[in-house]
Amino acid sequence: MEDSPENLIEEEECDSDEKPRYNTPFRSTRLHIQRSNVCSRAYFVVVMVFFHVYILNVIALLLYVHYNNGPGDLVSGDGGSSSGPASDSGASLPHPAPSSRELHEEYSQTFSLPRFEGIRVGHVQQVSLGSDRTHEMKTLSLKPLLFEIPGFLSEEECRVVVQLAQLKGLMDSQAAASSPGQVESNQPLLSLSTEEIFSLLDLNQDGLLQKQEIVSHSRSRDGTWLSPDSLRQILTGLDTCPTGVLTLADFRRVYDPSSRPEKQKKGKTHRQFKQRSKHTWLYQGPGSHHVLYTLRNRVASLTRLPSPLVELSEPLQVICFEHGDFSNAHHDSSPSHPETTCAHTRLAGNLSSLTEVSCRYLTMLFYLSSVEEGGETTFPVADNRTYEEQALVQDGVDLTDTQETCGRGNLRLKPTVGTALLWYNHLSDGRGWMGELDEYSLHGDCPVRRGVKWLANSWINVDPDHLQQERYQRLVAERHRATSGMEEHYRPLSHSDLHQDL
Ligand SMILES: *[C@@H]1O[C@H](CO)[C@@H](O)[C@H](O)[C@H]1NC(C)=O
Ligand SMILES: *[C@@H]1O[C@H](CO)[C@@H](O)[C@H](O)[C@H]1NC(C)=O
């Protein structure tokens, strides 16, 4: 009620002031500031100032965008998602020339994990596999982020990998089934002699067991053929060995197969992982077969992950699915809990009673053979609108049971020799490191109906705790140095121990 007469007066003033304002600008301005009149000069000035600031902002933004898209991609180098390999718009650009930012680049490369962008399902991008090989990579799903690269391996290379696996020998990877229908999987998993176990652990076949070889076997989830307790037993034995390596004789002393603990128990709440296949592990480091070595380098070039991460990851797992063989849907990696620790960095962590789990940032799967019928890789919930663990088992339908429900999966891929799949088992944490487990990465192998399916898995192990990953890498580097100069390494250690005691 008070306002309306005031407004009227102001409006009147506005009109009536038009003429006198030229004569007494000062007075009228002050008057209008006080009343915040829409027609005042002060208001005009304020609007103009805002307008200019706005224009400047727009120009600054345009400049920022311009430099951000410029060659070198340096501005976005601090671990943002845009520093992923996909950011250079498909073209396989060479690495930016070294500059004053090199140090910073190196830093951010150590502490950030490049990640492809999917854009949309069906999107095709060119990727570089080193030595001027470029391939087409097609996005198959966004949840999980899954890509297909045809012709990643030649047929000849696939044949070599299969032969190497056969030479090494494959072992059953039957995992205990929880359903009462399958009794046969309760038989003892393996009956290997000590020599055989030694030979299987000896990845580079030099007749000695190095620590790294044992550590690379410490996978406690799927495909483990030595329990964590046995591995720990061997590791403790190795630590007491002054040479730092185990010969077969040492190994016999250290490892007692009769004391082999009963099969590992898994978490009570989780469904048992069921599978039937044969598998083996192939070492890919220096001195390994050149096809295996090249394969790993190709994985490193493609993913652009820091090379220590690729080098310290698990060996190549080769799996053979014969008629009727399958694996139920599962995750390759594990959600992180305070009470779990990554198997691969366990050395650098707390050895007390934590549960070991596999921590695998991404999976690269290589089809080493084509299958005549069946044997598809299924992603039951790929790009589903929502995901609920409870919805997986509903109305008597278990979507993880590939023997029964393979046909109902959202995405099924027929194995084609030489084709590679790449998917991320984890989301990004938003700061360039590995975040939560991507539940959508659930996948399994449908039963083979005709033919034999050979595939290989290359996993990149990353600890969600990047400090722990860092500690582990430093530890391995130290040990590496120690094996070349054992004496120098052990002396200072005992010295410091002595000082501690005194
Ligand atoms: C290891 O774990 C125990 C108990 O869980 C804890 O008391 C100890 O501080 C931990 N040590 C390190 C180095 O984290
Ligand atoms: C897949 O999405 C549908 C539709 O949102 C939903 O009803 C169903 O429960 C989802 N499946 C799973 C396994 O979450």
Bound molecule kinds, no repeats = 2-acetamido-2-deoxy-beta-D-glucopyranose
Mean pLDDT: 75
Side by side, the strands of the main sheet go 1-2-3-17-11-22-7-6-4
User: What's the Cα radius of gyration?
Assistant: 31 Å
CATH architecture level-2 label of the largest domain: Sandwich
Largest sheet: 9 strands, antiparallel
The helix fraction, in percent, is 25-40%
What is the CATH superfamily label of the largest domain?
A: q2cbj1_9rhob like domain
Classification by helices and strands: alpha+beta
Distance between the first and last residues' Cα: 89 Å
Number of strands: 22
Please report the number of helical segments.
Answer: 15
Q: Given the C-alpha coordinates, what overall shape results?
A: globular
Protein name: Transmembrane prolyl 4-hydroxylase-like
Transmembrane segments: 42-67
Organism: Salarias fasciatus (Jewelled blenny)
Biased composition (Low complexity): 83-94
Describe the protein's architecture and organization:
Pfam families: 2OG-FeII_Oxy_3. One of its GO terms (cellular component) is endoplasmic reticulum. Residues 1-23, 76-104, 483-502 are annotated as: Disordered. This protein has helices at 3-23, 25-35, 41-68, 102-110, 155-168, 194-201, 211-215, 228-240, 248-254, 290-303, 307-311, 389-392, 402-405, 466-484, 486-501; strands spanning 124-128, 134-141, 146-149, 171-172, 275-276, 278-282, 316-321, 326-330, 340-342, 355-357, 360-367, 373-374, 377-379, 393-394, 397-398, 411-413, 420-424, 426-428, 434-437, 443-445, 448-450, 453-461. With 502 residues, it is an alpha+beta fold. It has two domains: 73-175 and 275-490, q2cbj1_9rhob like domain (Jelly Rolls), CATH 2.60.120.620; 194-265, Recoverin, domain 1 (Orthogonal Bundle). The strands form six sheets. It has a nine-stranded antiparallel sheet, with helices on one face. Helix 1 packs antiparallel against helix 2. The radius of gyration is 31 Å and the shape is globular. The protein starts with a helix and ends with a helix. It binds 2-acetamido-2-deoxy-beta-D-glucopyranose (2 copies).
